[in-house]
Amino acid sequence: MDFEKLLTQSIQEHKYWQFNAEWCKDCKYSKRVYEKMNIPQDKIYFFEISGYSKKEQSECRAALKKIIGTGNLPSIMIDGKLWGTEKELHELEDKGELQEEFVRIGLL
Question: What InterPro entries does the record point to (predicted)?
């Protein structure tokens, strides 16, 4: 499977995009943040890799790293550019700046 092409197309098609896996605790955390902030689940496209084999998941992560510089779960993209990961969500939440940032980027 050509994950590089698939990921590139998917990222281009969605303003808000997240690289995601059902088994990933940091991905689950990000979804809880979105729920807490009342962001509709359909506003963010979740590129889910859980359905792929372990080998394919590894290939997909390598392809994403080639495209954006990281294969981290979750990787959060806005307008085709890497916004951050769960690390940025934690930092903004800890500082009490999450709502302000979500307004700035158009999620709220």
Answer: Thioredoxin-like_sf
